[in-house]
Specification:
Elements (H helix, E strand, L loop, with lengths): L2 E5 L2 E3 L5 E8 L7 E7 L6 E6 L6 E3 L8 E6 L4 E6 L8 E8 L9 E4 L3 E5 L2
Parallel strand pairs: 2-11
Antiparallel strand pairs: 1-3, 3-8, 4-5, 4-9, 5-6, 7-8, 9-10, 9-11
């Protein structure tokens, strides 16, 4: 059974950092594009970053996170991480990871989704 599980969310002050992890089971993350999306209350789910399969590069879909968020893949742990620095209140959302054939900011391009992890940025 293919499964994705996110972890690492929580409450952080503005300017702080968090590292989200997306752990895969039942498949190898290296063979899929893994995207991070987020959904704030009352808003559409939006693409944040995606890392392509088989050593491909990453794609940024949210201008607001440029220079602050990075995505990486750990082959040994079969995980994909989202490092989030200089967090802002507007980054508050439920963050999801998803697996698909290619990177896309279209949520319907992804076949498998995790359950999400809450990130709250507040003083």
């Amino acid at each position: 059974q293919l499964q994705l599980v996110e972890s690492g969310g929580g409450l952080v002050q503005p300017g702080g950092f968090l590292r989200l992890s997306c752990a895969a089971s039942g498949f190898t993350v290296n063979y899929y594009a893994i995207g991070w999306f987020r959904q704030a209350p009352g808003k559409e789910r939006e693409g944040v970053l995606c890392i392509s399969s088989s050593g491909g590069g990453s794609t940024n879909y949210a201008d607001s996170v440029k220079g602050r968020f990075t995505i990486s893949r750990d082959y040994d742990k079969n995980t994909v991480s989202l490092q989030m620095n200089s967090l802002r209140p507007e980054d508050t959302a439920v963050y999801y990871c998803a697996a698909g054939r290619v990177c896309s900011d279209n949520r319907y391009a992804y076949d498998y989704w995790g359950q999400g992890t809450q990130v709250t940025v507040s003083s």
